[in-house]
Amino acid sequence: MRNLRFLSPEGSVGKGKKPWSDPLIEMMFSWSVADVFNDKLFQDKVVEIPKSFVSIETYLNSFVYPLIEEVRADLLSGFQSITQAPIVRVLSLQAVKNEENSYLAVLDYSSYKPTNGDVVFLSNGRPSQASNLLSNGCSDVNLALFIGGGYERQRKMKVSNKLGIEKLKEKNKGASFIYAVYLINVTTYKRIWKALKSQLNQLVFQLLPNPNHSSVSGASALLDTDSFDLRNVELKEKLMQFKLNNSQIDAILSCTKSSKLDSKHRIDLIWGPPGTGKTKTVSYLLWVLQTKKCRTLACAPTNTAVIELASRFLSLAKDDCSLHLGNVVVFGNETRMKIDEDLKDIFLKFRVEKLQKCLQPISGWRSCIKEMIDFFEHCLSWYQMYQLDPNMKNPKGSIPCHDALLSLQDFVKSWFVQIQEEVTRNLKILGQHLPRPLISIENLRDINEVCDLLGGFLHGLTMQLDVQVVEEAFKEDNAGNMLCKARSDCLKLLRKLLLTLNVLVNGNDIEAMCLQHASLIFCTTSTSSILGNVKQIKAIEYVVIDEAAQLKECESLIALQLPGVCHAVLIGDECQLPAMVRSKISGNAKFGRSLFERLSQLGCKKHLLNIQYRMHPSISYFPNSSFYDKQIKDGPNVLDKKHEHHYLPGDMYGAYSFINIVGGQESSFGHSLENFVEVAVVNQIIKNLHEESLRMKQKISVGVICPYKGQVQAIQNKMGEYDVSVDFTVKVSTVDGFQGSEEDVIILTTVRSNTYGSIGFVSDRNRTNVALTRARHCLWILGNGSTLSDSKSIWMELVLDAKARGFFFDANEDMSLSQAIIASYIEQGSIDALLPIHKLSISQNEMEESAQKDESDHAAITSGAIKSFIEDGSTEDK
User: Fold this and answer.
1) Given 145, 229, 306, 854, which is the most exposed site by the fewest CB atoms within 10 A?
2) What is the CA radius of gyration of the chain?
3) Measuring CA to CA, how many Å separate 605 from each of 154, 210, 232, 247?
4) Residue 98 belongs to a domain
5) C-alpha 385, offset from chain centre
6) 623 & 538 share domain
7) Going by C-beta distance under 8 Å and a sequence separation of 6 or more, which residues neighbour residue 846?
8) How far apart are CA 32 and CA 708, in angstroms?
9) 660 lies in some domain
10) pLDDT-wise least confident of 557-571, 607-621, 714-728
11) Domain's final residue, options 478, 500, 522
């Protein structure tokens, strides 16, 4: 590994080494191909991250080498996927003067448009496979990091090996192009590194707590004397009107009771198991913080979680006229966030675009108001000029096309409408999008009043008025004319706004202005790093992190290290999926552990949301017993008989069932696994549900959860298309894809089927918990009961529980499933594997005899089904 010694764990630069603006990237650029492929490169450097720390230095440094190792593993994963990775053609490369290893690249964006932070592999073409880099004896890697944009297709990049790039350019002179193949994006890694090396925020010192540390709070709000403050009593009564339960109210009151009252740094934990209204609780927590005028950052690990939280808050805020939406901002990547129409009002990019037009010196709000004032003062003289020159330009700068000369009434109406539309549009943009510090309540009242007056004036003009009435409307001394009074009132308010509404901001600084003055900012935890670069930004007081248990602890530091943060609220559930870690070494070192989980392990108290409103009680029973120590109660809505749905006939298809599939065969699918028998059963159940949905005209959402991507692909390939117009939807994904989701019916296929009880990562308790808690009305689990029982894992407990509660069924009890299983064996050419399972003979005579037996004889049903499929020579699915 070249030049590795320049970087100490503290990030300092060694002697004789030229300082580099980004030590993490320089280290990555120093790796050879062998280094990237060497899983043991940092094995002796990475040590397990402890639960508690003796100093802030040991705390921050404990993440450094696990982070570096994770970057290496992620880069390796990029190389291993290089044959399918996005690729872009580099049309030209030009070195940037006075910037070491910097180039301007002109790219062909037809297939892939790089973004800042993308690391690419530069070569003469796409490598056929990653191993070729090693086998060809390649020692140096031509990597490039995109760090900025340019004109049109131009991008700026830093390269790892200038000599190698020059050789590539020379080799390709007059011939083929250089190609950039996407490997990874390092933006979040860089932001974590920055957080680990930044000047410390005092809140970070609260991350090394003794389990009884007073700064990490979780005690019930009702046990704290501050909670009996009259303001808290009033707030509690108001929260109860919003149909929040006691545990949700207590969590909100406790997390907000110290706001604006003291400067003590503290962290609160809210524990939100599945279906307990976590997002609802957080949205009301944010609402309370806004009413207390606390400047707050609300973030989450993913764009999806941020948008969900922002949407819930927005729906709440629109019902509260005291909340000014100009103080609320969502910012991030528009494409990844998938901003809908409702959220556009608070999305930063959309707001900036609106305000830029509105604040233009020539055509903006001031210009429009002055034009309206001129109209009110000089309209009659304008009409006289128009009579002399009918080709006089109107307010929009165009020459009106009229066959005849306009009357005074039509002239006034035509010109007024054009100016009034612009004035109203601009003033409403200012009222809606300017942060409250830049627009007073009096300004907002004046804006609303003048818009109403202008609308009233227009309404008056639409009435059949004679010339004298219109003329008198534009004279100062006619108080008896309603139009004249409206005009006079408008003029006063318009002049007042010109004097009192002072929005002095350069068009290029609007984005910074919005962030500087916003009182509530939504973004991902990683993106919050940008706030640290905004000049003169007001300090963030509160950081609220949703889905905090899915966030690596070092990544949460990106938000917690922002200047001024004195209070953090972490909302999550450590019993669900943690953050993904690619490196086994870093994973074993607890690099993926969240701050929420570590503080929980230390015994720090948590506000438990203890009522679940999602799952039928038969579904919630096992997760509640196994993961939450029976602390979760079922809400009144799920206890109601209306929550019980029987989508298919038979006890097997009740609210909860384990459907035992004997003889299913797990098989390799690339690096994944699939089970073709369970695929067939899933497909048959979905067909049955679809038919029932059509027959009953009933809306059903179905989710199929698979632990393996191979099974997801197999089910998607097998499953037909369903008419979405009948409100029948099917989502097939891995456990990770269902985190945070819920559906009416969940079909969980466990895939593993063997004689030695091996179930791999299916045994993971967190993944099992997520899979078992996604269903609202029905959860049907497919699996080999024997294999799962022999695993001696949580799945053994689940099978035993299903049997004890009478929810254990054999798939062959359902004729349609039995036939589907048989068809799947025939389709796979595995009939010999099927017959011993059912203890059947393969002779034609015996099959014909068994087909004539009573249907209660299970073996006969199965045998008869085999006979029919053999005679047809095909299956229903073919």
Assistant:
1) 854
2) 34
3) 53, 12, 21, 14
4) yes
5) 59
6) no
7) 840, 863
8) 33
9) yes
10) 714-728
11) 500
Measured over the CA atoms of residue 387, residue 388, residue 391 and residue 395, the dihedral's sign is negative
> How far are the Cα atoms of 74, 78, 132, 161, 710 from residue 129, in angstroms, in the given order?
17, 11, 6, 21, 21
Last-in-domain residue among 477, 500, 523: 500
The one-character DSSP state at 228 is: G
Task: Give yes or no for a contact between 268 and 254, defined as CB atoms under 8 angstroms apart.
Answer: yes
Residues 338 and 389 in one domain: no
DSSP string over 403-424: SSPPPHHHHHHHHHHHHHHHHH
- pLDDT for 237: 85
Note the helical H segments in 23-113. Answer: 23-30, 33-37, 56-61, 64-80
How many whole angstroms from its chain centre is CA 295? 22
Q: How many domains does the chain have?
A: 4
- For residues 209 and 597, is the Cβ–Cβ distance under 8 A? no
For residues 236 and 677, the model is more confident at: 677
Please say whether the beta carbons of 144 and 158 come within 8 A. yes
The answer to whether position 866 is within a domain reads no
Distance separating alpha carbons of residues 382 and 401, to the nearest angstrom: 17
- pLDDT at residue 213 greater than cutoff 70: no
Q: What is the CATH number of the domain that holds 812?
A: 3.40.50.300
pLDDT band at 14 (very low <50, low <70, confident <90, very high): very low
- Domain encompassing residue 111: 23-197
Same domain for 523 and 470, yes or no, is no
CA dist., res. 734 & res. 339, Å (int)? 25
Q: The whole model's pTM is what?
A: 0.88
Would you say residue 221 lies in a domain?
no
User: What ranges in 228-322 are assigned the alpha helix state H?
Assistant: 230-241, 246-256, 278-291, 303-317
pLDDT digits 0-9 by tens, 776-796: 999 999 999 999 999 999 999
In whole angstroms, what is the distance from residue 621 CA to residue 615 CA? 9
pLDDT bin (cut points 50, 70, 90) of residue 220 is: very low
Do residues 803 and 686 share a domain? Answer: yes
Q: Regarding beta strands 154-159 and 143-149, do their DSSP bridges make them parallel or antiparallel, or are they unpaired?
A: antiparallel
Same domain, 583 and 646: no
Q: Does residue 49 contact residue 153 with C-beta atoms inside 8 Å?
A: no
Whether residue 586 sits in one domain with residue 632: no
Query: How many Å apart are CA 81 and CA 859, to the nearest integer?
Result: 48
**135-139, 248-252, 386-390, 871-875: least confident range:** 871-875
Within this chain, do residues 300 and 407 fall inside the same structural domain, yes or no? no
- Where b means 16+ CB within 10 Å and e means fewer, 715-749 reads beebbeebeeeeebebebbbbeebbbebbbbbbbb
- Please tell me the distance from the alpha carbon of residue 443 to that of residue 378, in angstroms, as a whole number: 26
* Co-location of 289 and 372 in the same domain: no
